[in-house]
Design goal:
The protein is an alpha/beta fold. The protein contains 4 helices and 6 strands.
């Protein structure tokens, strides 16, 4: 018998260089579904960015209890430029949605899985571009939901807004 998962809507986020995919779970935390794709704003100054503000509004509108952001790692587990971008984005988002927690979860191969899923559904390559980020966000969120249901613990690594590093037990991989 698996441990009970926490109740409440979660938001899944796939941070791309051009677009941000967003997914949401049902209130019981069982199933992730696509919500939208948001154009990624280029705001390196740390100010208000329309994509972040749209996600913040969605978190509030849905009464989300948590946000899960995909952390891209290489197959070896190393973190490159894309991971730094995702961490920065998650940190900026965490400040805006506080006290709602933001967690980083491993997203290896989620975009590959999203493309495969869309291809199997019969969607052609041109149409895939507009929704692949949403599909990747669904995969990220579903993996997080399943991991929590299996372990009884929140998934991934908590993004801290106080500048401190997460405690070791918060750095689940």
């Amino acid at each position: 018998m698996s441990p009970a998962a926490r109740e409440g809507v979660r938001i899944g986020v796939d941070v791309g260089s051009v677009r941000v995919g967003v997914a949401a779970s049902d209130p019981s935390g069982l199933i992730a579904t696509p919500v939208r794709t948001v154009a990624r704003a280029r705001d390196d100054a740390g100010g208000s960015a329309p994509d972040l503000e749209e996600i913040v509004a969605l978190v509030r509108e849905l009464g989300a209890m948590e946000v899960v952001v995909g952390l891209p790692r290489s197959l070896s587990g190393a973190q490159g430029k894309a991971a730094v971008t995702a961490r920065t984005y998650a940190g900026r988002l965490a400040v805006r949605v506080a006290p709602v927690p933001v967690r980083l979860v491993d997203e290896r191969l989620t975009t590959v899985e999203a493309h495969r899923s869309l291809r199997e559904s019969g969607m052609d390559g041109r149409r895939q571009r507009s929704v692949v980020d949403q599909a990747a966000a669904v995969v990220i969120l579903q993996v997080a939901l399943d991991a929590e249901r299996g372990s009884g613990r929140p998934p991934g690594e908590l993004v801290r807004t106080d500048g401190r590093k997460p405690r070791t037990k918060d750095r689940h991989r």
